């Protein structure tokens, strides 16, 4: 659960005072008088002190009643004592959750295409089958890098009715994206100027959950009126400003590498090998807070069976749907500006302007049309847009190549491709099974200079990128190959947030 401090209140000064009534709490299924009093005290205390707004408090309480354990285990959490009360009552058999009205899933599982089926885990397939059974689902597809996630699997593409949007099908890191700058410098610079390039990365990149920028290249995005559109956005503006130009944790990176471009592949750039800069990150704490807030509202508004609860949607014809749509699109602009800030600072330090820049989202929702003209909302959660002629970047791992691609516009895949190699094993499995000496040997063999990272991001934790690319030859054309050489990621002690 995200904590919002008093300086980032979602309820603003001057607004009318609200109260959460016992009747509203009773609708959550609270039928024990003592518990009702405790819930009312905590809920109205949070409201009074403007820690959260009413909708968020009720969403957290409903989530707590459904599954109290995460709240009970959260040290210092605002709902910890309530969660412990609920657990105690359940043990006594005294607490019964009120039955919820749910939307039914479709009884038939519609067919959906899968690329690289033999390399996709059962859990990801099961999640996609559940998603395609949603009453709002129109079409779906699964990319060859797919693996299990929350709600929609990573590598999942889901088209829903045009007026609906699923926060968890967009992803927690809204607008997570790739950005590539190509410089008119020889690729050999990664060997001849290694120390200089390392220093530039260290001086101009910031990693970690709480990291903040020390100076700005261009913060003009914050002049946009969009930052005043909703209470949620206004409350997060300061956090977003502080984190502009930062990269977070987990699989986020900024790296130098060798880019080999095929003849005639990229307009205006001759074939050859170039020094290039590649980055991977998203909308940071701003996008994470937006996702947390509206996913809980969606699960309150849209009641679904337990196996589908993370696929709850918002209606774009309702206030909360419009608010999320505005916030998601602003997060997209912010994520792009975030990458530009990083690349511009590094280009300035290098003393060379890039020849061109290529970039794309791979956690987002777009209003599109299917081949038959049907208007839909296309959710790509860990999937690269691959409409005809659309450029994108598909990375491998820290020691395997990534690729600049051009979409073929395959309508069966809903104009999509993979967003990377995809995880072969979970982070916990990587820590249990991978050998640090073997990882070091791999990096030495591939001539990789690594700053930061840990075992869970080792090359062996990912699928073979060549196998993934071969499985989607009908989705994209390869224009260039990027070989990572000098890689910077978050320190090992940092908790992954991707």
TrEMBL record:
It comes from the Bacteria. Mn(2+) 1 binds at residues 173, 252. One of its GO terms (biological process) is RNA repair. The active site is at residue 419. Its EC number is 6.5.1.8. GMP binds at residues 251-255, 362-363, 395-398, 419-422. PANTHER family: RNA-SPLICING LIGASE RTCB. This is 3'-phosphate/5'-hydroxy nucleic acid ligase. It comes from Mucilaginibacter auburnensis. The lineage of its organism: Bacteria, Pseudomonadati, Bacteroidota, Sphingobacteriia, Sphingobacteriales.
């Amino acid at each position: 659960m995200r904590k919002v401090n008093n300086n980032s209140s979602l309820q603003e000064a001057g607004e009318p005072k609200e109260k959460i009534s016992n009747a509203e709490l009773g609708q959550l299924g609270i039928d024990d008088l003592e518990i009702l009093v405790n819930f009312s005290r905590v809920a109205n205390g949070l409201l009074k002190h403007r820690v959260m707004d009413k909708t968020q408090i009720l969403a957290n309480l409903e989530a707590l009643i459904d599954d109290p354990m995460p709240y009970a285990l959260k040290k210092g959490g605002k709902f910890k004592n309530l969660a412990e009360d609920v657990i105690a009552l359940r043990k006594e058999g005294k607490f019964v959750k009120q039955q919820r009205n749910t939307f039914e899933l479709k009884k038939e599982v519609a067919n959906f295409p899968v690329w690289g089926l033999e390399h996709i885990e059962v859990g990801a397939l099961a999640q996609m089958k559940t998603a395609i059974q949603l009453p709002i689902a129109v079409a779906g597809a699964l990319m060859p890098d797919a693996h299990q996630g929350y709600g929609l699997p990573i590598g999942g593409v889901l088209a829903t009715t045009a007026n609906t949007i699923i926060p968890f099908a967009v992803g927690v890191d809204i607008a997570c994206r790739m950005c590539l700058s190509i410089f008119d410098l020889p690729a050999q610079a990664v060997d001849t100027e290694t120390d200089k390039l390392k220093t530039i990365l260290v001086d101009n990149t910031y990693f970690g959950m709480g990291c903040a920028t020390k100076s700005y290249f261009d913060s003009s995005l914050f002049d946009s009126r969009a930052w005043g559109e909703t209470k949620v956005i206004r409350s997060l503006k300061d956090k977003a400003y502080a984190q502009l130009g930062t990269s977070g944790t987990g699989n986020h990176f900024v790296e130098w590498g060798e880019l080999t471009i095929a003849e005639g592949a990229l307009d205006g750039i001759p074939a050859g090998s170039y020094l290039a800069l590649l980055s991977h990150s998203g909308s940071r704490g701003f996008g994470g807070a937006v996702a947390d807030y509206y996913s809980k509202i969606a699960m309150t508004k849209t009641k679904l069976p337990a196996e589908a609860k993370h696929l709850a949607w918002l209606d774009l014809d309702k206030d909360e749907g419009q608010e999320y749509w505005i916030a998601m699109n602003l997060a997209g602009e912010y994520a792009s500006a975030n990458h530009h800030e990083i690349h511009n600072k590094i280009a300035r330090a290098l003393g060379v302007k890039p020849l061109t820049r290529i970039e794309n989202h791979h956690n987002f929702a777009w209003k599109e049309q299917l081949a038959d003209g049907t208007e839909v909302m296309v959710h790509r959660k860990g999937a690269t847009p691959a409409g005809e002629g659309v450029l994108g970047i598909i990375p491998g791992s820290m020691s395997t190549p990534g690729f600049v691609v051009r979409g073929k516009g395959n309508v069966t895949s809903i104009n999509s491709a993979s967003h990377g190699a995809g995880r072969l094993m979970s982070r916990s499995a990587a820590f249990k099974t991978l050998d640090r000496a073997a990882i070091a040997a791999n990096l030495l063999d591939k001539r990789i200079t690594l700053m930061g990272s840990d075992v869970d991001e080792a090359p062996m934790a990912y699928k073979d990128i060549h196998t993934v690319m071969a499985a989607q030859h009908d989705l994209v054309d390869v224009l260039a190959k990027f070989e990572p050489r000098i890689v910077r990621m978050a320190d090992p002690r940092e908790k992954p947030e991707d």
